[in-house]
Known about the structure:
Blueprint: H1 2-37, H2 51-69, E1 77-78, E2 85-86, H3 88-95, H4 111-137, H5 145-153, H6 156-160, H7 169-186, H8 191-203, H9 205-226, H10 230-264, H11 298-301, H12 310-319, H13 327-343, H14 347-353, H15 367-383, H16 390-409, H17 420-442, H18 447-466, H19 474-494, E3 500-503, H20 511-515, E4 522-523, H21 530-537, E5 542-543, E6 546-547, H22 554-559, E7 562-568, E8 599-603, E9 607-611, E10 619-622, H23 636-647, E11 656-659, E12 663-667, E13 679-681, E14 690-695, E15 703-707, E16 716-720, E17 723-724, E18 735-740, E19 748-754, E20 758-760, E21 765-769, H24 771-781, E22 787-791, E23 795-802, E24 808-814, E25 819-823, E26 826-828, E27 831-833, E28 837-841, E29 845-853, H25 858-884
Amino acid sequence: MQRSYLNHTKRLVSSHKQQLFASFLIPLILMSGYFIYRKMAPFGSSSLLTVDLGQQYVDLFAYFRHTILHDPTAFFYSFSKAIGGDMTGTWAYYLMSPFNLILLFFPGKTITSGIFIITVLKYAFSGLTFAILLQKMYPKASWLVPGLSTAYALMGFTVANQLNLIWLDAPILLPLIVLGIEQIFKTGKIRWFVLWLALMLIINYYMAYMICIFSVLYFAFASAHYYTSFKAAFTAFKKFVSGAILSAGFASWLLMPTFYILTQSKVQYTETSVKFKFEYFPFKMLSKLLPGTFNFEQMPSGLPNIFVGAFCLIGFILYFTNRNLKLRERITAGIITLFLLLSLCFQPLDLFWHAMQFPWWYPYRFSFLVCFWIIFLAARYLFSEPSFSTRSLIITTCIFLLGLVYLYLNLTSFKKYVDQSQFFIGCLFVALGLLAFILLKQRPNAAWLITILVILDVFVNACMSLNNLSYVSQSEFGNYTTELDKTISKIQKKDKGFYRIGKTYMRTKDDSMQAAFNGGSHFSSTFETQIPNFMQKIGQPDGDGFVTYSNGTLITDSLLGMKYWSKNIDSNQLGSSVTSTANPTLPALTYRPDLTSYQLVGQDSLTQTYKNPYALSIGFGASSLVKKFDGSNLDTIQYQSQLYSTLAGKTTSKLFTSQNFNEVIFQNINQTTKLTGSVLKKNSLSKPGVVTFKFTPTTNDAYYLTLGQELNPDNATFTINGKTLTQYSPYRNTVVVNFANHSKGKTVTLKIQLKKMSLWLENFTLYHFNQTGFTKLHKQLSTSPLKVTKHNSHQISGNITVSKKNDFLMTTIPYGKGWHAQVDGKSAKIVKVAKTFCGIQLTPGTHKVVLTYWPPYLFLGLIVSLIALLIVSCYLGFKKRSIKK
């Protein structure tokens, strides 16, 4: 009898291992096969890059490689983040996944192959961890485990957010965190709960926040299931709370500096007013239970992605009818379910799950928790003596019929992402799902057949959904990356100093992260708001979480130390729009004829490299008058002129003068003598409305044009001398456009063609740049540069000699509490200049200056983490001694 028991145990262990292996391997093979079929790199000409994965994450992944392999100090700070910024928040949100270590083996353009491997592995590990949870909770679980695990791995959230690769660690760790909560009740131990929750907090604090909320809900569910007495329940509660606190303690070294950075960035966008309303008619979310309902249109503001397959959905409903499960547990599960469903449509709850900020694109980001809950309860029904009553199946069938009738009658309402074929495929899988439960009732050993059905259902959804998306070609990404790396590498090999580099072309706003150079553009969710605010003041396109340094002038290039400019050859003349579908190797970003004022120092078949003789050092001696500079009420042109002049100790210097056009021709548009601020209106709707502005420069100086936010490509087309004006769009404030340079006596023609009935010429003014006055100011500011002797990503050292007239060290390092200064070995106070930069008051003479950045609260966070580690170590040591006694 003992031998029989041992044989049974061996078979069970062997079966469990096979189930785990299958749960890992099935999602891996399915998604790898699909991607290979779609010819994703390294298996073809396409790539997995699309939307944010292609426009943001891939560049941050390249930055990850650079930091780990070449510059560890970039973990704290980076001058590749626009003109400089703290990086702890960026790491905590984007880059702490251990899967990213795979990227170390994929340099340059091959990084897309690394992304392929990480993506399929995250699918596979999601299936594996869910299978582990099921087996630990239900030791006698059948071969339904691989099917349910694959349904979890390929749930609607994962497929829809595959492009948000940074979020996919959450579905992997969620089952392990839930298992940790289970262990609190079963063994009284909190170690696994603490371990996995701490890891989640470190990997991605944002998704961890959602999991923490769900952990409270799951603890309530587990309490209802395991309840024996109030004392036992309270003991479990204390362990749960202490485990959560310990987890936060272990992660404090990263969480505390990250929280501070969030107060300077994302937290400033927090909603302060909440509307108690439904965001849509709740029954509409039923449409997302049909296969293939995700596409590009669903990304910005679609419905929640909660697809789990018909079989799991049926099991979820049947769970509540299973009288073999305690009524107390089912009531608790019902309350949690209602809360989760309301969260998917009731605005205050939706906002709560997203930390009081409405998501910018990708709504209902917590839907992976809803998917988990549905599949988990279905599994609980299947592995906890299911009743399989005929009455329950009939009731469930009626519920599905009502849902399908509603969807069919309202199919036109969902036509943007649902068609009839999807509806009938959904009906087919519902019918097969119901038959599967009938089969399972009569033949429990048919689990493997049902597993195939479940896998087929979710895989069909994955294929149909992903077929709706288009991706960046490998050549488009690879050719650009190769050329950018080559161009930047040439500059950096010749000049080892500290400087910034500008470009007239752009693939993404994080190109500087990808190629590891100091730039001026950036896009991330943890971007400090002071930089977009400053960029807006100097006429650069900006937004919540991004800036694009595309509209620099001779002044801003000089001030920000843009020492080198890489210019795509095609932009010697005006090129096609950056949004053009016919993307060249180096997509044009901006038109900068004033770059001809710089020195041409290099050229290849695609680019020209210019050296800016007016670029100032990262720090320079300036007038102490700048400490009082405000500029809040100045427009972009006045702001640039006044700031630069004040730095040189001048209060009245005027570097820009407004100009009149020589001739203005109106075609099918009402004539007006005053251009700036006027509203142009078409006379006839059927005819094109065009205004032609002609101007003949009287000097070879640069001329600039200001354009308000209404003067954008959505409202009009802009051409100069017959060719499209290339400018980054959209922009939400006034931008400064370089209109002409070295064009004395040559007529420059600007044409504006209206796309609508009217156009507001908001802040539309032409300016002449005073080159002579600028040169004098620059000469004065360049007399006392900070001669950088040593620099890395978080420290700059150098020597500077100043006089009484320029005894204030002005830097273009963005101000932050993490910056610390030493002058001649002694601590010095850092002053915030122009609400943006770091400055230090000096005394006349020569000084050695060291500026070092340490993330605020990093040391405090480390102390808290060490205390948490010490507490655990002391507890384990005390427990070990107690056992020995």
